[in-house]
Amino acid sequence: MSSKTRSLLGSEPLRKAEMTIRLSEFEIPPMQDALLVGKQAPIGPEAVRSMVDALSPEQYEIIRIEHQVFEAAVLKRSLLKLLPKDKLLPILLEECERVADEHAVVKAQVNIVIQVNRAVDL
């Protein structure tokens, strides 16, 4: 293309590519992601702490909560890297209180997928 044609058409065309990246946690062997302990459950938060520390040291965070059904939540730390507990915990509590009472210990498998769309100049 001649410089005269380029000046008539403007500068080189702007090229962009869109990328979609999906990130999610993958582990072998798969382990439990969350545990909610009812206020009258046969196992309390301290017993859960002992169990978790013995089986998977430093992999879970135990959170005491003020809730009408549950007194504690045990959350996998790697999940909390993907979604902060102030976002994750209310959703878990809302869904688990629909199926459990204060005598229950509810386990939950949580899959978090982060989707990122970016455009880059080529």
Number of helices: 4
Characterize the largest beta sheet: strand count, sense, and whether it forms a barrel.
Answer: 4 strands, antiparallel
Strand element count: 6
Mean pLDDT: 84
Gyration radius from CA atoms, angstroms: 24 Å
How is the largest sheet built, in terms of strand order?
3-4-2-5
In whole angstroms, the N-to-C terminal distance is 20 Å
% residues in beta strands: 25-35%
Helix content range of the residues, please? 25-40%
Order of helices and strands: HEEHEEHHEE
Task: Describe the protein.
The chain has 122 residues and is of the alpha+beta class. The protein has a domain of 83 residues. The strands form two sheets. A four-stranded antiparallel sheet has the order 3-4-2-5, sandwiched between helices. It has a two-stranded antiparallel sheet with strand order 1-6. It is elongated.
